[in-house]
Design a protein that fits this description.
Length: 69
């Protein structure tokens, strides 16, 4: 997802993915930062893939409300 506003010199990205973990669960991996730079990363563990997908969809809706497309 990206959010670009040249008037405010804002060029941000937000990336989300679901990755399996070693214990049979799934992790929601989030990356964010300024486009063209490395950014930050955070991993959020969940008991199963269904919960991780639900968390991803909820987060995607929140980011769209904030102007990310």
């Amino acid at each position: 997802m990206r959010r670009v506003d040249p008037a405010r010199n804002m060029r941000r990205f937000y990336r989300m993915s679901i990755q399996p973990d070693l214990f049979g669960g799934a992790s929601l991996v989030r990356e964010w930062g300024r486009i063209g730079y490395r950014g930050q990363m955070m991993s959020e563990p969940h008991a199963d893939e269904g919960q991780a997908v639900t968390a991803l969809m909820k987060l995607a809706r929140a980011k769209q409300r904030r102007g990310y497309a």
